Amino acid sequence: MNTSDTVEVNNFLNPRNIWTVYIPNDPSEQAVVLTYAAAKRLGTHQLSVEWNDKNGKYIDKCSFNPFSVSKLPYVHTVTCKWGGRLPDGGLTFSVYNTFEGKKEKIGEMYLPAKL
User: Fold this and answer.
1) Rounded to 10 degrees, what is the CA torsion of 98, 56, 78, 81?
2) In sequence order, what are the residues at sequence separation of 6 or more whose Cβ sits closer than 8 angstroms to the Cβ of residue 102?
3) What distance in Å separates the CA atoms of residue 35 and residue 5, rounded to the nearest whole number?
4) What pLDDT does residue 29 have?
5) Which stretch of DSSP H or E encloses residue 73?
6) Which residue, of 53, 54, 84, 115, has the fewest CB within 10 Å?
């Protein structure tokens, strides 16, 4: 999800205000991508978030440190800030997990631009 900021409640990160659109080309526009990823397998995982414009052109990426899953169920939370002069036409955020050398898309979200 996209949020204006995060707030911690009972040791768990939650969104402050969820964004459903953004204003294109606004240099002051900033938000946070908040991702909850549930692991299905034991071992070392590494998450990343990439975003592309409406034509699939790469815009930016957040990579995170690897983490080890030793028991299930396991939920890992990551956040990264984004913003600035973003394109019109919307953004697609894709969440990836790298496990045993294989990168797999585990989630995707489209965020439209405000017209």
Assistant:
1) 140
2) none
3) 13
4) 86
5) none
6) 115
pLDDT of 21 reads: 92
Domains in the chain, start-ordered, CATH in brackets? 2-111 (2.60.40.4070)
d(C-alpha 10, C-alpha 18), whole Å: 19
Which pLDDT does position 66 carry in this prediction? 97
Cis omega (within 30 of 0) on the bond before 24? Answer: no
Please identify every stretch of the chain with a pLDDT value under 70, giving residue numbers as ranges: none
Distances (CA, A) of 28 to 2, 5, 34, 91: 16, 14, 19, 17
**Six-digit token string for 60:** 């930016």
